[in-house]
């Protein structure tokens, strides 16, 4: 049987309007014991996905654990793109067991959820497995998560993937939302985020635009 290809995106690709982003426990105390990724890269990647979501108007939930009594403030890289947005502070390690968070999930009404946060084996595994069991489609931004060791982080990803979660990276998240350089309304914002947070790819954009006056697409 022959198959006819069509110039249309696959249904498994994310779009700005089909999901919610949940950013969990990007806090000082949680980062101190994180060793699977260095703090600079972690903050960079967390900031990248936060700015991507804000740029594309993706509904985003920001949640902390014991902010005032133990874990400290959320990274400014995560909160700055959402000025004035209230953080949901919890006592539960599993975000999915917090009624205030679930109220926001239900109010947003998306069946696709993208997670990032600390630690992978606790604060990401808990809500991911819980959401999958309740019928949600779950994506995890692997390089915007961290754990007490590489082993802990990797086994947590394995466990979530075995349950059906889909891993991705921070830069992939940004570029998947843009997907076409002809989308001029978000072109400058996307390339600006990539220049600031996209590492060597961002440097390449700066070089191409400065030296060669190039533009994607």
Automatic annotation (TrEMBL):
Family matches, as CDD domains: YcaC_related
Record Pfam families: Isochorismatase (PF00857)
Every Isochorismatase-like domain range: 20-170
GO molecular function annotations of the record: hydrolase activity
Keyword annotations from UniProtKB, A to Z: Hydrolase
Top-level taxon in the UniProt lineage: Bacteria
Cross-referenced InterPro entries: Hydrolase_YcaC-like, Isochorismatase-like_dom, Isochorismatase-like_sf
Protein name per its UniProtKB record: Hydrolase
Organism: Dyella psychrodurans
């Amino acid at each position: 049987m022959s198959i006819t290809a069509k110039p249309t995106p696959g249904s498994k690709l994310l779009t700005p309007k089909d999901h919610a982003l949940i950013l969990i426990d990007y806090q000082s105390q949680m980062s101190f014991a994180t060793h699977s990724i260095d703090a600079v890269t972690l903050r960079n990647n967390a900031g990248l996905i936060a700015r991507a979501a804000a740029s594309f108007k993706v509904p985003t939930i920001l949640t902390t654990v014991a902010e005032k009594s133990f874990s400290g403030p959320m990274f400014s890289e995560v909160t700055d793109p959402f000025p004035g947005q209230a953080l949901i502070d919890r006592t539960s390690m599993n975000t999915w067991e917090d009624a205030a968070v679930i109220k926001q999930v239900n109010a947003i009404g998306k069946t696709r959820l993208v997670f990032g946060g600390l630690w992978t084996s606790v604060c990401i595994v808990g809500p991911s497995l819980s959401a999958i069991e309740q019928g949600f489609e779950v994506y995890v931004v692997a390089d915007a998560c961290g754990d007490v060791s590489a082993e802990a982080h990797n086994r947590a990803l394995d466990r979530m993937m075995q349950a059906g979660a889909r891993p991705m990276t921070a830069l992939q998240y940004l570029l998947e939302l843009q997907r076409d350089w002809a989308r001029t309304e978000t072109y400058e914002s996307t390339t600006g985020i990539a220049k600031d947070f996209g590492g060597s790819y961002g440097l390449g954009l700066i070089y191409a635009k400065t030296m060669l006056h190039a533009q994607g697409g």
